[in-house]
Amino acid sequence: MAGAFLPLVNREHKVSITQQIFLGMRTAILSGTLEKGSRLSSWQDLSVQLGVSRGTVKRAYDLLKDHGFIVTKGRGGTWVAMALPVGPVETPPQVHAPRGLFYDFEEGPQYFQLGVPAQDQFPSKAWHGAWRRAIATEGARPQIYPDPRGLLSLRREVAGYLATARGYSCHPSQVFITSGFAGALGIVLGAMGFRGNRAFVEDPGFPRTRHALQQAGVETIAAPVDREGVRLPIGEEGARLAVITPGQQAPLGMSLSATRRAEILHWASEADAWIIEDDYAGELQLSGRALPALAADDRFGRVFHIGSFSKTLNPGLRLGFLVVPLALADMFGAFVGHLAPAGSVVAQQAVQNFMSGGHFYRHLRRMKALYARRKALLVENLCREIHPGVRCEYEGALSVRLFFPKSADDVAIAAEAQRAGLGVLPLSPWYQSHGPGKGLLLGIANVRDRTVRGKCETLSQVISSHPYA
Ligand SMILES: Cc1ncc(COP(=O)(O)O)c(C=O)c1O
């Protein structure tokens, strides 16, 4: 339905309003803004929306009809014609989707794509039930502004989940429902006024975090990652923030060691600095029990804890949560109230229903077992296939990592593999430092018995066809 399209009208203009409506809609049709075959507002509705007389709009619609741009089907409404009149076609401007996000927004996921859940094992019945109940509740709810921090019932549920699954006790007033990790990060950066400051980021680390900080005017300082996780170059002057993945380092997978956890918390309290804990994979730790969240050890009120439903439920939900130190809860409430209120109440209610019905926990338990099996399957097949000069790592994280010699062009290899339908990612863009590691990241969530062997063979052929020594 293209009914939402409103042509601009200017009463000061010398051109008549009928003509302005006609020209505005004609341009929108020719440029593709109004798609062929889409339905338009009735002329009665449009006249109300534009605050002009019905006759004015009707004359504009008649003109559009006479020129062959629209067709009317009596009570069936008014539509953009499927066959447009030949005429000077205005080329729509080229507007690109945001770059560097790794994903095709229209299709996928591809085999080995990272960051998406298993597509075949979602508990659809329970999920649909949760939505049906959410819609029924919504229908019975008064049409008023909801709490911008998110539904209290969901914030309570999240606080309960954090206490049991992540060993972190917090009060629901510290919890904010956000548009995923990205939305939560934006809220912290804005509310804390970090623009113009410097932040430690893991090297290698999640590129979207680095780009997000830079977009928000925060200078990033690379903090190297070793076997114990990230090591902050603490002597470095002036960092007021560190954004880290203590649970499972992204992309290398190790958990932050107890010594490093203590060091980082100590640094924050001494340097009047802050930590953003990106707990993107939550308790989806495949071997053993996940360590508690870093925020659980935070005695100084310095950690912002961020969780996301993107890996555990669906990235399309755009839902996550932010937990702020208690002392900052009011300030964050005011910030989100004005600048970043939580999104759709129905979606929040559905997630709450799903959680309170016990389905979320059951789903996580099943996914942990499934992902562990799929990872083992991939490792077994990959090691059989892969070039002997390539090192394969698979401890931790929901990925398998392949490391190449430094001379390899991992971006070109990944691009070729992507053309062959494999959603692998190159490793080097995850580094901020010069002379980055080279390799590929493979997601394990959608690996299947029947297909894994063939996919590994294809990947192996792509890698072997690239000389990199
Ligand atoms: C390191 C890391 N953080 C966060 C996220 C989730 O981001 P969002 O909640 O914005 O989807 C991902 C998903 O790929 C990730 O890999």
Automatic annotation (TrEMBL):
GO molecular function: DNA binding; DNA-binding transcription factor activity; pyridoxal phosphate binding; transaminase activity
Superkingdom to which the source organism belongs: Bacteria
Keywords, ordered alphabetically: Aminotransferase, DNA-binding, Plasmid, Pyridoxal phosphate, Transcription, Transcription regulation, Transferase
Pfam hit, one: GntR
Residues annotated as domain HTH gntR-type: 15-83
Gene3D superfamilies: Type I PLP-dependent aspartate aminotransferase-like (Major domain) (3.40.640.10), Winged helix-like DNA-binding domain superfamily/Winged helix DNA-binding domain (1.10.10.10)
Keyword presence, Transcription: yes
Similarity-based family: In the C-terminal section; belongs to the class-I pyridoxal-phosphate-dependent aminotransferase family.
Name assigned to this protein: PLP-dependent aminotransferase family protein
Organism: Rhizobium grahamii
